[in-house]
Amino acid sequence: MEKNLTIGKPLNVIMSFGIPLLLGNIFQQLYNMIDAAIVGKTLGGSALAAVGATGSINFLVLGFCIGICNGFAIPLAREFGAKNNERLRSGFINGIILCIIFAFIITISMVLLCFKILISINTPNDILDRSYNYIIVIFCGIPSYFIYNFSAGVLRSVGDSKTPVKWLIIGSILNIILDLLFIITFKLDVFGAALATVIAQFVSGIGCCIHIYKNFPVFKIKIKDLKCDFSIMKYLCIAGLPMGLQTSITAIGTVMIQSAVNSLGTDYVTVVTAANKILIFLYCPFDTMGTTMATYSSQNLGAGRLDRLNKGLKSCIFIGAIYSTLAFIVIFGFADNLNSMFLDNNSMHLLPIAKQYSMINASFLFPLALVNIIRFMIQGLGFSPLATVAGIFEMVARGFVSYLTAIYGFLATCFASPFAWILADLFLIPAYIYCYRNLKSIFHEKQMKT
Question: What is the DSSP string of 160-211?
Fold first, then answer.
């Protein structure tokens, strides 16, 4: 079902659009947590570390893929807001073509390079083979990530945030079932965990594609319709590539931190992997806020409703402030209980270090809320290069902290993300003010001419 975000009280439409997204994100992270718990509890801390050691590479590559898909959806949301069905359809067709091209190139490249990358980030020798067995399957499944994220982005661009969630939940349940089957019954170790994830992602993507074909006539195409329009492709890439690059640039900083953690040994890799599973789960609402504000700002820009932008921004920041406080309280009271879900009996001595990492990161959740809300609004307004610059600030911050790890040890890595979020905010806040004033000036000139 389509949903128009250009009418109604901003807080209400943001909540009604965002809540289904939030449920999907929570469910996705929940099954990621269960996936990690199954690996940690059944295969041990070494297996959990092997999966965790690939986390930064995973984020770097898949983040680029997901960023591109989300970026392609922004122009579609803008055309939907402007009620321009012809360009909406053309954007959809050319988005499919671009996804096929990018999926092929990225998959082949990563399959060929992944072992060398693992070595380059100091993956401990005792978990190197397991890490490779896990990440090679994920990289072979890159096309399935394109299928789901592009189709989900298309649905969100026309205001349907519920269908992607429904298929994500179905995929999540399937993932858990396949985890148990592949790891416990078939003894496939971490290879089985990765295979379960790829299959579940593929099923979710196909489900979204079928829903688009059956319920949105404007997107119903045949093979003969798959014709390249280079002007539309350029239009999509202007939004998609900076969004993908922004995620990847941020991820490069994460790779630096992962390399620093890897150099500290398997125990610290295990700690960071376990703690991050909880923290990433708590980050779900921030991801939702970002995705929601990208669609909200895109639709309102397309409809010429600049008066709604600041109202929506203030409403979402208010939500972010309340949630940040509640999430910190949860970590303060239950860090040990939560982190212990991912550690076997031989790893329980690591709980104090895991709590330290969790508490420091949880203390800076509001700056993270601002990063997501403002950056995605800027992207939705068509200023993706500025969002990419914010990613560079994050990368520089994490790179600097990774250098400090050699001096101050694990404590330095605990402050890597908070430092990155604060530095990004110092750029994003004035950047949004510039974007808003620039758009007001453009719209004022158009009104004067008419």
Answer: --HHHHHHHHHHHHHHHHHHIIIIIIS--HHHHHHHHHHHHHHHHHHHHHHH
